[in-house]
Amino acid sequence: MTRTPGFSGSAESGSARHPALITEAQSSVEEQHKARVRKYMFIMSFRIPALVLAAISYSLWANPWIAMAIVGVSIPLPWMAVLIANDRPPRTQDEISRYDGRRSEQAPIESRTHHVIDAADD
Questions:
Q1: Under 8 Å between Cβ of 25 and 95
Q2: Where do the H-state alpha helices sit in 1-122?
Q3: Is the separation of the CB atoms in 64 and 58 below 8 Å?
């Protein structure tokens, strides 16, 4: 019995480490959720150290402007973390792009000219 090309070991044809993709299924909801939680936690992990750094900078230099600048940079972090974490996974090259930028050659709905009635001057 001979081996088929599908077992050659390349990533394209399938192997033990890189199985061949036989469906167009996306990653599972659980995997997507884990990836989003990791992104959120990574971004939010900068918030507490930024606040601690602001407190340390204020105690070292007694300059509230430096501390407030550090706090000001950390304020939009939760908002950014939520937006980035809730973003969809990036498109794959196999995914079809529905919009191609071409204008349709169809005529508009009301393509005929309309008769305009002017009011008579009295």
A1: no
A2: 29-44, 47-61, 64-74, 77-85
A3: yes
CA dist., res. 52 & res. 59, Å (int): 11
Whole-model pTM: value is 0.53
Amino acid at 34: K
DSSP code of 22? -
Q: Quickly state the pLDDT bin for 18 (edges 50, 70, 90).
A: confident
67: how many CB neighbours lie within 10 A of its CB?
20
Assigned token pair, 92: 């794959």
Each residue's pLDDT tens digit, 82-108: 998 888 777 777 667 676 666 666 666
The tokens describing 93, both together, are 């090259």
Cβ(82)–Cβ(44) below 8 Å: no
Which one-letter DSSP state was computed for residue 103?
Answer: P
Say whether 58 sits in a helix, a strand or coil. Answer: helix
